[in-house]
C-alpha cells in the first residue's frame, strides 16, 4: 500500500497575529517545514521561533496552488488563512485541489464573527457578500430596503466603491460602517452615509457593515418588470418569463444554457435564483451579446458567461448543461438535436416560439419525446376610446421535457 502524503494543516489567523492563536495552531506552525500564506500573514509569525521556510502566495493565487503544493510534496506544510479558512477562504481551494481528507483545518474567528460581535448584529440574520475577487456589481443582488449586509472588501478602495454603487442604485441614505483590522489592538471604525462618504482609503484589511434603509424594492422571484432590462425588443416578456423559469426549475449548482439569449433575461433570472446557479447565454449578434452582459451586471449577476456565436456551432465546447432554454433560432439545422444530445440525463429542455414553423417542429418533438406542450397567452387591458379592452400579445408555444435516464427511453 503506497505511503500516504502528510496532511496539510490550514491555520486561521487574525489581525492580532501570533498572540491570538490557540495552542494547537501555534504547535502546528512551530512543527511545519514550510508555511504558505500572504506576505501580511507571514509577517505576523515571530522569528526565530517559527523557523519554517516561508513562501508567499503569488497572484493570481488559485492557479498556482497545485504547483506550489507539488513543489513541497513530502514536507510538513502549513497554510495561513484569514480567520476561518472554510469561510470564503483558502480552505475551499485546498479541499477542491487535494481533497478534504488531506486537510487539517484549525479555524480562527472570522472577520464576520468579529464584526457581528462589535456592532451587535445576529450573525444568522446578516447576509454576507464577498467582493474579494468578484465584480462590484455582485453586491446589487443583495440590495433590498431595510436589510443589513456585511461586505468583505477586496482592498482599501472598496468602501468608497460600495458607497458609490449604493448611491447609484438608489440607496444613498444607507449607513456604512467600515471595520478595519478586527481583533488587532489598533482596530478602527469609520462611519458615514453612502451619498456623502467622507473617508479616504484606509487599511486594506477591512469589512463593511451596511444598513440599507430606504431604496428601490426588488423581487426574489422570476418575472422582473420588462423595464428592468435594456432591450431592442428581443426579450422574453415578464409573464412568459416567469412561467418559463418555473418549468426550467433552477436548483443550486446547476448550469443553464440560454440559447438565443436576446436580452439575457432567462439566464439572468436563473442566476438570481441562487448564488450557486451557473449559466451561459449564447447569442449570435455581438451587439446583443454586449447588452446581455450589461443586463447581468445591472441585475447583480455579473458572473453570467456570454458566448457570442451562432448555435449549434457555438455550443460545441460548452460544459454539459443541467437545463437548456431555447428562445430563438429553433429552425436552425441541428439545433434541437444538439441541445437534446448535450443535455445530461434527467435534465430539462424548454423551448419557446411564436412562429408556426417552429411550432410545427416542437409538435414533432413532443410526439417523439413526450413532455408537455402548452400555449401561453397574455392580454393587457388598454384604452379603447373612453372604455377599456384587451390587447392580446402574440401567443407563445412552449415545449418542455425531461431527458430520460436510460438510452432505451431516450431513443426517438
TrEMBL record:
<dbReference type="InterPro" id="IPR012818">
    <property type="entry name" value="CbiE"/>
</dbReference>
<protein>
    <submittedName>
        <fullName>Precorrin-6Y methyltransferase</fullName>
    </submittedName>
</protein>
<dbReference type="InterPro" id="IPR014777">
    <property type="entry name" value="4pyrrole_Mease_sub1"/>
</dbReference>
<keyword id="KW-0489">Methyltransferase</keyword>
<comment type="pathway">
    <text>Cofactor biosynthesis; adenosylcobalamin biosynthesis.</text>
</comment>
<keyword id="KW-0949">S-adenosyl-L-methionine</keyword>
<dbReference type="Pfam" id="PF01135">
    <property type="entry name" value="PCMT"/>
</dbReference>
<keyword id="KW-0808">Transferase</keyword>
<dbReference type="GO" id="GO:0008276">
    <property type="term" value="F:protein methyltransferase activity"/>
</dbReference>
<dbReference type="Pfam" id="PF00590">
    <property type="entry name" value="TP_methylase"/>
</dbReference>
<dbReference type="InterPro" id="IPR000878">
    <property type="entry name" value="4pyrrol_Mease"/>
</dbReference>
<dbReference type="InterPro" id="IPR050714">
    <property type="entry name" value="Cobalamin_biosynth_MTase"/>
</dbReference>
<dbReference type="InterPro" id="IPR006365">
    <property type="entry name" value="Cbl_synth_CobL"/>
</dbReference>
<feature type="domain" description="Tetrapyrrole methylase">
    <location>
        <begin position="8"/>
        <end position="194"/>
    </location>
</feature>
<dbReference type="InterPro" id="IPR029063">
    <property type="entry name" value="SAM-dependent_MTases_sf"/>
</dbReference>
<keyword id="KW-0169">Cobalamin biosynthesis</keyword>
<dbReference type="InterPro" id="IPR035996">
    <property type="entry name" value="4pyrrol_Methylase_sf"/>
</dbReference>
<dbReference type="GO" id="GO:0009236">
    <property type="term" value="P:cobalamin biosynthetic process"/>
</dbReference>
<dbReference type="GO" id="GO:0032259">
    <property type="term" value="P:methylation"/>
</dbReference>
<dbReference type="InterPro" id="IPR014008">
    <property type="entry name" value="Cbl_synth_MTase_CbiT"/>
</dbReference>
